[in-house]
Structures
1.
Amino acid sequence: MNQTATLAARDIASPEADVQSPARRSAGTGAKRKRLFGIFGTVLAVATVGYGSYWWLVKSHYVSTDNAYVEATSAEITPQVAAAVTEVRVKDTQSVHAGDVLVVLDNADATLAVSQAQAQLGQVTRRVEGYFASDGALAAQIAARTADVASARSDLERARADYQRRRALTEGGAVSTEDLTTAENRLRQAAAGLNSAQAQLRAAEGTRRATEVLIAGVSVEDNPEVVAARTQLEQATLNLNRTIIRAPIDGVVAKRSVQVGQRVQVGASLMSIVPVGQAYVNANFKEGQLERVKLGQLVELKSDLYGSSVRFHGRVAGLAGGTGSAFSVIPAQNATGNWIKVVQRLPVRIEIDPKELSAHPLSVGLSMTATVDTAR
């Protein structure tokens, strides 16, 4: 009987136990949820503080962009004389050094021009040497004419004295009129001789002055005529040397368009030499990133060609004088009523460490990622 009562009491109590069990479970779940939210909130706060500290202490000291590309100051190869191409000794992608022969032009006309200029120089030199020789001869001729004038003047004085003496004797009857006439004729002849000698002296002096103008103050080598002829020879020799076109710098051949047999004109583009060893990077930073970017700051660069395994290092070499849009063919004119501000980018030139470029060459146009350390 006691057992039956116990069973009945248990049956009566079990519904109450079933009613209380979900409430207890709900309370336990809520407490657990609160603990999880507390933990999540704590972790989030710690992460926020940690990232903020990291950004403030480290990340805020760097500005980065992937809008960066490799560039180089290429050398355009153009002929300086017009001629036919006889040899092309290089091809695209070939590495060359300064002084290497790239193209050989036909030099027949240039060789003839050199020979003609040499002959012209010889003729002019001999003509100028003749000026100097003539000056010496004219000096001797002037000396002789001066002596002739002096002699003629003496003859004139003697003839005049003889005429005057005979004239005085004629008045006294001691000399005949015929003798006086003879003395007068000698006087006229002496005067004519003096005039002739003086005229010859003046002619010689004038000729010498004309010669002296051509040679005054200079030697044969420094004479303007000789210098002009020598300059023509040097120009002809220069044109002959220009028939061999050489590389002006070290680099890689690109855009080769010249072919054997082609007649090229002065200034025509034959090829380009890209100095890959002197490549640099133009990084286009947003204007808001440039507040603390200064010349000389260190830059870390990554190329898509080599991936993250290779890091290049360089320095900020300069900031462009204008944005890319300012120098475009049709620059933006933001003067309309529906103007929308567009963030501009300014090219920043970055010089790369030459040793790293030598170890890992870069080609013009490759993409780069540039990160500038603005804290230094």
2.
Amino acid sequence: MPADDDEVLTATRFRAMGTDVEVLVLGPVGGPVDGGADDLGERAAVAIERLESKWSRFRPTSELCRLNEAGGSPVIVSQETLSVIERAVDAWKSTGGRYDPTILRALEAAGYTENFDDLAKQQGDPGQMDSRAAARPATGCAGISVDRLIGAVILPPGVALDLGGIGKGFAADLVATELLAAGARGVLVNMGGDLRALGEPPAPGAWVVEIDDPLGTGRTGMVTLGTGAIATSTRLRRAWEQDGRPQHHLIDPRTGEPAHSGLASVTVISGEAWRAEVLAKAAFVAGAQDGAALVEESGGTGLFVTDDGEVLELAGLDGFRP
């Protein structure tokens, strides 16, 4: 999008956290940032790699893997990991369990046992996967303990976390904040559809974002963001087959199976990307009616696309239309 003559807008694109990342940085020409906005894009890439090294379930040395394997013992983790787990537990409570980070074993039972990029390389597409263990309902977060005094987390025996979605959203929040503190005038961080806008938007006053339209309805349209966040959850991405049955990564915690709620995708606009992400997942699991109530009661808005292509706009979305 165009910038005024006294502004420079740079874009940095890379692959991280199993998704395509784009970081847009707005800053004055010759401004106070050492090395310019291009350096801030590189700084974002370094920061996201640091967070992925802590939160990935596919890196055996990550803090998350150490925690999942601790068998009920306390694990000292970084402040970022404490913060994302606190948010995940709070989201489980506030959504009535519709968002649940303890679905890891259910994801594995459905066949999602490797980084999705690696699965695609090995099989051409995610393809046919062998039978796994039977799905079980998620355990829930009731027994998880976070001790900020010593910087430790305790998971009850048998409980394992997946921080994939909320991790991408929280990474967008953290990186946007870091770049603004480093001298950017405005930032838009896009973590594969989890977007966080912070600081000043470009002229004429907003970032213009196209809402994901996985069914190709042509009716989802655009929204504008000054500061805030948007996230989309859809069953049509990260999808595969196991024993001839279609699977996807949006697990219903109540059953341990991929959710089938009559929705193809849910888009949520909220103040922070981690919150938009968990609300989108929770609303997808809940279905159109209960999901809309959940988003609106949380102060957000958004748009649902049903399996048959109907587009449902929530109250308040008009205020974000161009």
3.
Amino acid sequence: MLFLDDDVVPSSNLVAEHARAHASAPNLVVIGTMLEGEGRLSAWVRWEADRLAEQYAAMDKGVWAPTPWQFYTGNASLRIEHLHAAGGFDARFRRAEDIELGFRLAGLGLQFVFHRPASGLHMAERTYASWLSSARQYGRNDIRFGKTEERVVGEFKYRNPLTRALVRWGLRHPKPGNAVPRLAEPLIRAADGLHLRGPSKQVCGAVFNLSYWLGVADELGSVSAAMRLADSGTPPGLLSRARSALPIGVRTGRQ
């Protein structure tokens, strides 16, 4: 069973490469690449593409093995009997439904492998509002998935100190906190238009994380509960950039 998003243009050998990877073992979930397509991307889509490229590079180097967190069904495959055995997708989830399925596949004992030659071009196009909405939904889903310690708390300590400060401020002051991501769009566009890619990337990372944590608060039903989670980790010192990912690879750097 091969999954391919409608905005992913497969390479001429994508199907053959998925088949070749599966020939090596009967219990594999194969993850291919979704590389940045040609043309000018919006700053937030480029930010996603950069995070994804970081994940691919880390898996190539063997820094960490692929897991259900990297099971993006924009380009992935598995045997159909395994999909049936896992029960298929859970239609209750509007985002990260592939990752939730990935954990059930892992529970069946399947092995996740990254196979770069199974490549496709990701011709991504999404509005800023849609991008923010996805970040918030990821926060909700990580609570619903029962990944509070592993993801919600465990990941926050890897964020840039300024990003952590913004998240705490946004949770303490939910009304302006909810407004900040929307109001940041002109700043991101302006920085990107001036080719200030560094500042544009940093602002994208900050507002994505803030939106994610607002989603955590939504699912918990309490801003104070989200604040307790945000305050529960002690940031370590110098950190590796090769951590695995929040959705779209947020965990691969200090964003």
